[in-house]
DNA sequence: GGAAGTTTCGTTAACGTTTACGGTTCCGGA
DNA sequence: TCCGGAACCGTAAACGTTAACGAAACTTCC
């Protein structure tokens, strides 16, 4: 058990060639004939060669530059995602990661330009939130062709050649929301509503489907209404909900899958049915806290932004370090926050990643409102 | 931004001494006078020296031996914990971890002997489940004195000098169970029971307290009974529950915090009140699945054994690698499993950590029934 | 006062990889 | 024939740390 791992020298010796040639062959650098290259590759495989990352890093002293393209926000989902990324970067033993944040001020504004900027500056990897997957697909493809791996967070960009995706499992989210809704309503009849960002986004459609089918399967006396699309716009959410409440006097519950839960609550209050409505929301932000505490929101599905950030960086770093991905798809289980355990989550959010280690990860901020002038 | 980090040579040069002396001083190896040692330490601090782990590992080629002392079990909590540890060990870039499993067949049997064995063989670190903290306290103290860091999983061993503890947050668990129980019972009156392993174990007492106080705070019409102690023994759980059901005909729900939920369900069935009882359990194992599917168990609090294992190994490895701990206490948020999202968790349990990378982590099994003959 | 031992410290060869540079060959063109 | 330049390959010096080997200087003891 445990003979010493094979090194470049081993390969060279058993081939009667030199370390330099082996190295060039393995990295397909120029200056090696196709014949010897094939022999080297063959021998490396048969000896089970795996590079020693410590030696590699020590020798080259290259740092991996990673661009993180997300939305602006304070004490919000994306701040937490970034914190998770920072934490994970700080916990990398080989301190060879450098993070560049490219933050967009508003949904869909300048996302493509930011991504192009990252590609142009030849970063080694990209973590991105593709709020509108279609508009970014071609840029992500371009990154892949430039051999820059791209990891999506929260929303997937299908058929774009991205390396992987980290998100909360939509099925688990929608189903648990449905199951809770059914239990909370406890045999009542009536209709149940659900708001989504937009049904064209796969994730949101899936959440709806999961919610709908779970409710149908276990609570047949509840009826799921056509989804309300709010596009994360407060006014749109409010307006559509007021309309919804008027049209469906038998409404018993509503599941808000977007961050626009405040206007929904406001609409319910203004329609005077806040206490008759079972409300399940998504995520956890300061404005929502009092509503959970008061019981107006019975539960919220927390999408664990910090964990998403951590996993995204991990996936990217593993790929960059080892050249092979272990998984392309990380589906996190959402957390359930209610009155009882609310404080636990608030406490943990406020713990700002007690960084005793000093600034081991070099960071750069790119304010895109300037960059794109 | 980002001048090159200071090295041993830097320290040596600015002190007019040699690299060897600096090294000896920083590791308090023998052969360096107290005076120069002080100077070196001083200079290292003022230059902000931080060792280059890549170089260290490359040079010494030492592997860290970690003993994992847990309970036996197949498709059980502890199997998942071990899987988590393995996964995390495999994802360490410097492949310098070697894991030795010392598995005890039964609760409390041979735990101390296994721990002593690990200490005797001078492992570099220990992950342990102290099922009976008091009986292990002195052994853990001995390990700490031998400079072997010990990380506890699932149950803490207080005042033992252990490096840290990884567990599910007891407050979050008890509170969410109470909150769900209250919502599910939806205004009903009656009493609610809770079973624990033993109130002497801090974690279990805390879960009870959290359950009790949350229920009192939000659902005052429910009354929490005195906790049932089952010591994870099937017969004891069954017997005590039958008695409980007889004595409290108004029992509306029960929260099982141990793994002994099957006998509780059996007792409820035999007492013919399975369908009148709201049952919330703990963890997720094959025998429990049909009961969740049938609705007999409305929800189970999943303690995320895999995540516990991962975090434990991470904590230990970070300490061994860097000599400083970032956190001593990791409190995980439990997951909530219901009918709706059950399949998601089962699928993820069965994914056996698709290991493409081959056996990079050398493992050793220590069957203690042999070792202790 | 010198042999023998101790304490303190400097030197150097690893570890496995990257990278720059210096050699070979071999071929076409003068 | 000789030169210029590819194309291919070997060599050796880094990278920062560890660990082993000695070389001093200083003690102790006969």
Considering the chains and any ligands shown, give keywords for the structure.
seven-stranded mixed β-sheet, DNA-binding, seven-stranded parallel β-sheet, alpha/beta, homodimer, disordered C terminus, 373 residues, elongated, 14 strands
Kindly summarize this structure in a few lines:
Chain A is built from 15 helices and 14 strands. The first copy, chain A, has helices spanning 8-15, 19-26, 34-47, 53-60, 77-90, 111-120, 133-145, 170-185, 202-218, 234-247, 262-270, 289-294, 305-322, 342-350, 368-371; strands at 64-71, 97-104, 125-128, 150-153, 164-168, 190-196, 222-224, 228-229, 251-256, 278-282, 297-302, 329-332, 335-337, 362-367.
Series of secondary-structure elements of chain A, N-terminal to C-terminal: HHHHEHEHEHEEHEHEEHEHEHEHEEHEH
Distance between the termini of chain A: 61 Å
Arithmetic mean of pLDDT of chain A: 91
Strand residue content of chain A: 15-25%
> What structural class is derived from the secondary structure elements of chain A?
alpha/beta
Strand order of the largest sheet of chain A: 12-5-4-3-1-2-14
**General shape of chain A:** elongated
Query: Fraction of residues of chain A in helices?
Result: 40-55%
**Tally of helical runs of chain A:** 15
Instruction: Kindly state the number of beta strands of chain A.
Output: 14
Oligomeric category:
homodimer
Can you summarize the main beta sheet of chain A? Answer: 7 strands, parallel
**Using only CA atoms, what is the Rg of chain A?**
25 Å
List the chains of the largest interface with their residue counts.
A-B, 55 and 55 residues
Low-confidence stretches of chain A: 353-360, 369-373
């Amino acid at each position: 058990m445990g003979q010493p791992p094979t090194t470049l020298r081993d390969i060279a010796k058993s081939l009667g060639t030199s370390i330099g040639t082996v190295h060039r062959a393995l990295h397909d650098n120029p200056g090696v004939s196709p014949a010897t290259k094939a022999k080297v590759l063959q021998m490396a495989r048969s000896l089970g060669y795996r590079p020693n990352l410590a030696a590699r890093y020590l020798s080259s002293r290259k740092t991996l530059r990673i661009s993180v393209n997300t939305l602006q926000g304070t004490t919000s989902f994306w701040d937490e995602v970034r914190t998770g990324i920072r934490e994970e970067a700080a916990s990398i033993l080989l301190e060879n990661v450098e993070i560049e944040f490219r933050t967009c001020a508003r949904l869909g504004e300048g996302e493509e330009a930011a991504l192009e900027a990252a590609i142009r500056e030849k970063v080694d990897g990209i973590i991105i939130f593709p709020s509108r997957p279609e508009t970014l697909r071609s840029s992500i493809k371009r990154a892949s062709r430039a051999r820059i791996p791209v990891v999506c967070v929260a929303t997937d960009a299908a058929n774009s050649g991205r390396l992987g995706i980290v998100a909360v499992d939509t099925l688990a989210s929608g189903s648990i929301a449905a199951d809770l809704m059914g239990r909370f309503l406890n045999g009542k009849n009536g209709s149940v509503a659900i708001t989504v960002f937009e049904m064209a986004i796969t994730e949101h459609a899936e959440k709806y489907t999961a919610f709908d089918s779970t409710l149908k399967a276990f609570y047949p006396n509840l009826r799921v209404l056509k989804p309300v699309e709010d596009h994360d716009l407060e006014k749109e959410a409010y307006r559509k909900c007021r309309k919804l409440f008027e049209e469906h006097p038998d409404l018993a519950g509503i599941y808000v899958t977007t961050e626009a839960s405040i206007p929904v609550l406001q609409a319910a209050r203004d329609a005077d049915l806040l206490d008759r409505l079972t409300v399940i929301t998504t995520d956890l932000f300061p404005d929502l806290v009092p509503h959970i505490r008061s019981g107006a929101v019975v539960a919220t599905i927390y999408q664990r932004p910090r964990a998403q950030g951590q996993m995204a960086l991990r996936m990217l770093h593993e790929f960059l370090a080892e050249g092979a991905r272990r998984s392309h798809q990380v589906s996190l289980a959402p957390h359930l926050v209610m009155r009882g355990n609310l404080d636990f989550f608030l406490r943990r959010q406020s713990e700002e990643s007690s960084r005793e280690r000093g600034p081991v990860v070099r960071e750069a901020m790119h304010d895109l409102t300037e960059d794109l002038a």
